[in-house]
Amino acid sequence: MKEKIIVALDVSTVDEALSLSSQLSDHVGGFKLGFEFFYSTLASLMLDPMVDAVTSLHKARQLFEQLAGRVFLDVKFEDIPETVKKAARTLARFRPKFINLHAAGGKKMMLAAKEGLIEAGLGDIPVLAVTVLTSLDFQALLEIGVCSSYGNMSEGDGVEEIRAHVITRAMLAKKCGLAGVIASAQEAPFIRRMCGDDFLIVTPGIRTAWATWAGSADQARILTPQLAIEGGSDYLVIGRPIVDTPESEGGPVATVKRIVAELSQSY
């Protein structure tokens, strides 16, 4: 079950990422690196004093050597097709476990991303489409015009309309030949039904009842690890419940072991 867990290294320094990856490498299936890590590292390389920047560069290279083949590049492409194609071709050099983009970018953009990865000639790199961010609820989708208000729906939670958007985007991603999607566990059973067993579902927004230190204020559509796997999720992206575990609770490794144990008891 440990292979199903991808730890979100949403940290702002290479030192933090190295420490967490060293602690957790033997206990999980992979690591996600995204905006917070990449932008803070880039700022360090470009703006810090030269000696500090060179040190950061060496540590960043050490991190990627340590995580070879296990990195989920959470870059969330959403731009014109040619730009995405070139960016994907470049990022293929990292040989990531997964790379993602927003399904909202459309069919041409998704196909361009795949084309860029193929042109890189570095093997099959699975592309995942973000359907609807797990931080968005129905009200947020109304505000940005993704969902429409009719009747009294705006007074409810809009679960069915959110689900319809997620499934539509998942099916488009499958049609474009993508490996799978990033989606809330709440929609996973419906995606599985519509897209089949060979379509990957990678799920963020995972929370446990006992990891009270993590909070969930910025997540709208969440589930526990057990319910996510039962619903059809293939991988669970877990950040704060793991990385923010206080030492008084055993630290990050203790949380991972507890999650794995609970998953193992369920299957």
Pick out its properties.
single chain; TIM Barrel; eight-stranded parallel β-barrel; globular; Aldolase_TIM; RibuloseP-bd_barrel; Orotidine 5'-phosphate decarboxylase; decarboxylase
Topology summary:
Blueprint: E1 5-8, H1 14-24, E2 30-33, H2 35-47, H3 50-66, E3 71-77, H4 81-91, E4 98-102, H5 107-120, E5 127-130, H6 138-143, H7 159-175, E6 180-182, H8 188-195, E7 200-203, H9 225-231, E8 235-238, H10 240-243, H11 251-266
Parallel strand pairs: 1-2, 1-8, 2-3, 3-4, 4-5, 5-6, 6-7, 7-8
Helix pairs in contact: 1-3, 2-3, 4-5, 7-8
Please characterize this protein's 3D structure:
- It is globular, with a radius of gyration of 19 Å.
- It has a single domain, classed as TIM Barrel (Alpha-Beta Barrel).
- The termini are close together.
- The longest helix has 17 residues, at 50-66.
- Mean pLDDT is 92; it is low at 151-155.
- The protein has an eight-stranded parallel beta barrel, surrounded by five helices.
- It has helices spanning 14-24, 35-47, 50-66, 81-91, 107-120, 138-143, 159-175, 188-195, 225-231, 240-243, 251-266; strands at residues 5-8, 30-33, 71-77, 98-102, 127-130, 180-182, 200-203, 235-238.
- β3, α4 (81-91) and β4 (98-102) form a beta-alpha-beta unit.
- The protein is built from eleven helices and eight strands.
- It is α/β, with parallel strands linked by helices and 267 residues long.
